[in-house]
Amino acid sequence: MAKEPDPDDLIIGDELIAEGRSGIAGETPEDMPGWMRKVVATIDITNNWVGRFTCLLLVPIIFAMVYEVVARKLFIAPTIWAYDTSRMFSGALFMLGAGYVLMRGVHIRADFLYRNWTKKSQATVDASLYLLFYFPAMLFFFWVSLDYTISAWVKWERTMDTTLMAPLAPARTAMPVGAFFLLLQGVAEILRAFHDMGPERASKYYKSLPVYIIGLLCIFLSAFFPAIMPLGDWWSSLVDSIGLTSIPTEFVGIIMIGVMLFAIFVGFPISFTLIFLGFVFGAWGFGGTLVFYLQTLQFNSVMLEQTLAAVPLFVFMGIVMEQAGLMERLFSSVQLMLSRTRGALYLAVLFVSTIFAAATGIVGASVTILGIMASKTMNQSGYDTKLAAGTITAGGTLGILIPPSIMLVVMGPVLEVPVTDLFSAAIIPGILLASLYAAYAMIRCWLNPDLGPILPVEKQPQTSPYYWLEAVTVIFSIVVLFVLFFMSLSGALAGLFPLSWLIIPLAWGLIMLFGAKWVKKVKPGGFYFSDLWYEFFIGLVPPSGLVAFSLGSILFGWATPTEGAGCGAMGAIILALAYRKLTFAKFYEALIKTLEITVLILFLVAASNFFGAVFSRLGTPTMLTEILLSVELSETLILIIIMALIFLLGWPLEWVPIVLIIIPILIPALDKIGVNLTWFGILVAVNLQTAWLSPPVALSAYFLKGVVPSWDLADIYKGMLQFMVIQLLGLVLVFVFPQLALWLPEFIYGQ
């Protein structure tokens, strides 16, 4: 029998990570040459310590955001430093941690081809692309960002968009320092590749290294010190002689996209591929000097984007919430609550996944924990494997749609749409998808009761004779509590009497508390609340309350997305402490995991912004927009084509490169035809959920297979594909009825 996995041993925040390196930093293969082992181990240990210290930058970000909200709302004394502190520390976090993350192998690849190659072939490709892409890109970035940072120190530049006018030099220093550690780690990575490819093949690379280094040095000197190495005129003549300068810059952009897709599918980390291609095609299209500084400006812009500071905070909130173990308590209580219902475990899985999609936003956490909790009971109760697998994986994917979703936080600046609009627009489609999943599972069980039998009598809980009255009373009370809570946040309860916005929800909570105690003591007419309701309440209300406060404060204008995320992160810490689930080791583990996920997202944001800036400067988006409009297609047909493209790209790619690379290319055309970008963003979000359920990537399948090895991967795929069809139905509904996405933002914020 397969060993049952221990939830504490699982790495479940890695759904964005196409590759990860486990083990202790500094460990090297015993058959690696001695000098190579020393170099690799020293570099790994150096970046490991850098990462260990860098992750601590998250603590002052949380403190700054919580302090700002408390000072502004309770004492009407807003700070002038919290805004700059959060964005600059967040920017430094992702730049300084980049070398550590590369050392841990935490980066995004389109690796569905790469993973099927032999180790020797992988090493050969890696070594070639490190030499071709990585080292030139990082060397140029280091030098230009160093010059940019020195200028900031010399001139003592300050921000001009805040009252504090904070100095920029300290935050900018993170760029050349981060680039240096990336260059350093690149040396360790290429040495690993040389070792993995074998001595015979590696010897050929060693022989070519002197020529490579001299060539790279010549290019570097000619770009930044033309007086020393005047190769510019020679290069221009060579380019002219082969006719490259005669190609219009718009077509250079087309070639750029084609090369980008090819390079990504080869399997090299996407961020570094985009940076290198941006350099090459930018230098071809409008000159090397401009493109070098354009990259630094784009990275600096991402570092100072305050909305993106919400990314590490929401990630940290989700990881700590998962550590608190509330998901298991809620699932156990819901399955007992519905034990007399056919298909109860399907409903329990979907209910719990919907709640924790909002609480954590981490697909890997939801799928693995649900698989551990539900699979054993489902197997023992005779549930259908395909439908069970589909329910677990589909429910887990809700985390990228239901707010506060990290994907929506990243998508907001890309679409230039307020994150608050995307959050409010995603709520109804998220609930709609969860409802469609549940309806499908229940209809299947109604048509074929063997798919989801009623739980055995011995697994059903003891309840009072008035079980349904228990259920109605508890659920009604909780619903009223949350309605009052949201009314309080929205201001609907303010002004009725002094502190009415606070007193009314608290009064209802006290009525629930003392009412439950009275019923437990008196048991009127034999009526009492079963023990399962206590577990249900403890599992549901704390995480839901935290999400309601964090999300509600954002939606109703009490806090910015970053402030709401900071308060949510602090609330998650308090909850984990209250349930005695947070130790220093787990807290530090959450910081490290947050650093890894934050770096891989934000570094790709910066790289794709640079790539997109070069692409736009070449004029290709304008040309494509004009071509698209010239064929006189209707707005509906254009959107259908775009949705089909995104759906197809979702099979080999994750949401990050699609949102950051593909979507910006489409925005000019969408603006021209007058598409509502909030609605479009939700269409994309619903569409991209299919990436989690579509082979060959389908990471949800691998997460589930990892914790339920007794389930055949083919059955998991078959179950997932059923729910992918339901996702497409949900996409069609949001497409045909835009108000499903637009009604709530219009209701909250007006037209």
List the helices and strands and how they pair.
Elements: H1 34-54, H2 58-74, H3 82-96, H4 98-103, H5 119-155, H6 169-172, H7 174-197, H8 199-224, H9 232-241, H10 249-266, H11 270-286, H12 288-303, H13 310-323, H14 326-337, H15 344-360, H16 363-380, H17 385-397, H18 406-415, H19 419-447, H20 467-490, H21 500-522, H22 531-555, H23 561-578, H24 584-617, H25 620-630, H26 635-649, H27 655-673, H28 677-688, H29 699-707, H30 713-736, H31 739-749
Helix pairs in contact: 1-7, 2-3, 2-23, 3-7, 5-7, 5-8, 5-11, 5-12, 10-11, 11-12, 11-24, 12-24, 13-23, 13-24, 14-15, 14-16, 14-22, 15-16, 15-17, 15-19, 15-22, 16-17, 16-29, 17-19, 17-30, 18-27, 18-28, 19-28, 19-30, 19-31, 20-21, 20-22, 22-23, 24-27, 25-27, 26-27, 28-30, 29-30
